Task: structure prediction
Amino acid sequence: MSMAEQDDILSDAERRALADVSAPAGPAPSVLVVDDNAINREALAAYLRSRGWECSVADSVQQARAALRMRPSIGLMITDLRMQPEDGLALIRHVRASERAELPIIVVSGDTDVQEAVKAMHLGVLDVLLKPVDLTRLLELVSKELSL
Result:
């Protein structure tokens, strides 16, 4: 029996069922980028998308909270610390006290002082990266956290 004949053993319904079983469950994990600076936010999101990561953005703590509530597929958050009216530390504290407490978080900040960085590290962030961001390091962290 040839390979072509063997392929015909499966019906279309069986093929679909087999594809469903072997397909990964649910959407791939995505990254949420939070920054009140549109240029920084969009540049970071575009970079991650260019590397194959699913990415969404939020321009405020309030928008980030809503995204985390509505999108369970978010598997990692990258946030700035210096934002108005609420800052990134408030957002991280909120996440740590929520049902998403285990969410991996990377801080990306331009003018963070040592005290802020230490507070963020105490809240269990993966890393604090200063701007201009070391994109190689960022990609390593994202890949490590989201590789299933």
